[in-house]
Protein 1
Amino acid sequence: MSTDRSRWVIIYPIYMNSKKTLAEGRRLAISQSCENPTASEIGDCCAFLNLAFCIEPEKAYSRDGTGQRGRVRVQLKKVDGSPVNAEIPSRRVLMLKVADLMSKHRSRIKKGEAGASTTNTGGGKSGKGGRKKK
């Protein structure tokens, strides 16, 4: 069975980047988006959802001036037009599921733990480490 990848939907990371505005290309609400997703993270989420995908690292979103590269092509429909995964019938539903999975992605969990492990060793609000003026 030959699949035509040009018929697959394209997902740019900027579509679900909470740091971007709607005018800059974000397509989800900020509450549904995640911070600075990458094409490889989106690919990992598609693999978790058992969807065929391919990462195109050399491609960039036309309105993105930051130069973030990469996009993901995902197969949502079979050759006959039926959905590959009945739970994901459209691009919007795919973006919502990927953005939800992104918060549980292994690279994001490690970042969160690193920030949470720091402890306050100084005493008081002054930031002087408990030293008092003489």
Note: Residues 5-113 form a domain with the Phenylalanyl-tRNA Synthetase; Chain B, domain 1 fold (CATH 3.30.56.30).
Protein 2
Amino acid sequence: MSLSGPNKLARSAWLSDRARESIAAYVFLLPWLIGFVFITLGPILASLALSFTNFSGSLERMQWVGLDNYIRMFTSDRAYWGSVRVTLLYVFVSVPIMLAFALAVAVVLNRGLRFLGIYRTIFYLPSLLGTSVAIAVLWRYVFGQYGLINQLLGLFGIEGFSYIGDPRSALQTIMVLNVWTFGAPMVIFLAGLRQIPAQIYEAATLDGANAWQRFWSITLPSLSPLVLFNGVLSMIGGFQAFTQVYVISDGSGGPAGSTMFYTLLLYQRAFTQLQLGYASAMAWVLLLFIGVVTAVLFLSAKYWVHYGEGR
């Protein structure tokens, strides 16, 4: 069936308008596409190619070594496995403690305290400051040999030591810094607590459930999606931790390698020893490991994440 003259003109005008809209959309998207290709996607693909070379900054001396960087990483680099151990301890100890502390504070703040907005702002402030260079420098002075902690202990006649200079306490000091930034997950937990209907708690109380039973049977299952969300984000951030450990340990990973994080060793291999190919391989292994851990968390979610209003 052929279109009449007016219908053809209307269809042509409609197609012309759609074409102009499409062109305008691509024009507005073009800066982002250029940035994505040349700033994000390009370097990612380049690092993957470099991970199979012994690139040290000179294209003339670059050689293709295949899987040698990965084989060396898993077989002969003792510092690599030391950094893996330190990073795993940091992530799987400090992140659960931070989330538990954030949840506990959120539960307390949800009890209808006066000046809730002020308390919420105070507790959220450390997350805004984060683990920046300034905060890391402050941490060095607080936990150093002559820092604030030792000065307070000195008032009671207790002789302190450099907590960041002792292998037995250096990593724990950085863990405390991570726990200190509990404000962001706390705000998310607090928002989730506000969404739980009060009638559920009232019914559980009438059935004889005490506070602890109400927490385990109502509060925690209702917040389990937020626990998953905060856990994934905090875990990824923990594996990528760099600034605080670099500043606190002066970039050495000391004392005695106790704060040699994976990212810090990667930085040393790349920009101190100019083993850029090897560092690229380390980066891709870290990416794959984070992806695997994240996938495991999401796959396990069906066993412990409840998308309802409690059990």
Note: Residues 5-50 form the longest helix (46 residues).
Protein 3
Amino acid sequence: MNRIVEATAELISRHGLSATTLDDVVAASGTSKGQVFHYFPGGKDELLLAVAQYEADRVHAGMDERMPELSSWSAWSQWRDQLVGEYDIQGNDCPMTTLVVDLHRAGPGARALIAETAARLQSRIRTGIHQMQAKGLVGAHVDADAIAHSLVAGIHGATLLQLATGTDSHIGSVIDTAIEQLKSTASQRTPVHPT
């Protein structure tokens, strides 16, 4: 079963969902159509949901293994460099890109996995901002939720631009801009309005 899921994921990341056929999956996995339907009796939708889970698990494993706790500026810089480096290595094989670009079409189960994956990254960023606020490194008035949402959207939009254009500056620029904006808030005070 794992061989079928991994082969399907690789085909989708290389060629896209619409260009991946069952015959391609059978050839790439070294299995038969009977084996595919044995493991995935629900057919294509069930297989694609398993692929979406596989890709989501890859994203979660990367976060757990390599994403630092964002409680210092050096940690933010480390995370920025790690993301840029990973994309340079992964390119089209970026699991989050595969999820967002292709597997969102695999039905509500896949979309729920994408939402959960994005929410998990947003939670880590939000927690980091709260820790930085507690240290006085980020202004207390900063809306950590809003920054986390926009940063996740910016990062994933940047990966799509990098994929489409072949340039490698977008992801780093998104995070650098967020870091500079957050740093600038440390000296700002929430305005006091007369009552």
Note: Residues 190-195 have pLDDT under 50 and may be disordered.
Protein 4
Amino acid sequence: MRNSVSILGVPFSKLTLEETTLYLAEQIRKERSGLFHLITANPEITLASQSDELLQEIIRSADLVVPDGIGIVLAAKRKGEPIPERVTGYDLLLRLLEKGNERGWSFYFLGTDEQTSRQAAEKISWTYPEVKLAGRHHGFFSPEEEPGIIAEIQRSKPDVLILAMGAPYSDKWLHRHRQELSGVKLVFGVGGSLDVISGKVKPAPAMWKKLNLEWAHRLLFAPVAKGQKSRWRRQAALPKFVYRTIIRK
């Protein structure tokens, strides 16, 4: 995308949240030969891409990468190519659900645990009654179950496929199955957003958001899914990112 800035080789969009929402709505509306892959990348993912060749390939092939973290915004400012604001997966999901409620879009949700998946789907159906639930499945499926899940997504052909299996696993999973999911219009990962929507995790208070400290709220209060690294270990990447993009010339 032309209106972007490169941070450690990752091309971050300079669009605001509202501009991004409208841009994605246009991608859903028009006919495409394949799916539109959006990546919400934070400093941790950006740093991980430096030593992960597969992740680099996935980022290069993505249709849009948005700045899901205040560290990205600060790094762009330090570079002299400012990004107006963060565009988080959670905020983007809520905006697209609002648009989907107006336009009757269909959504498929893949990821998190079964109880959280069910509760999030129920909450979404109640809050956005005109959104069509194309289907859902928890993220703890076996290799034997995977073909059936892919077949279900193929049959339902959702306008939006939401992946809640953690980053960068969600994007790597999509990379493996992209050709099989060509009937989907838009795909992106939302991290732990379904945990918040379901009520399992409380959203960060307004003051934390205003101070760009949502990451600290998650670090202190959000549970860690089985199989994922602890949040404290993951946040250890932040000082490295700050040094490489903000402090070091």
Note: The longest strand covers residues 36-41.
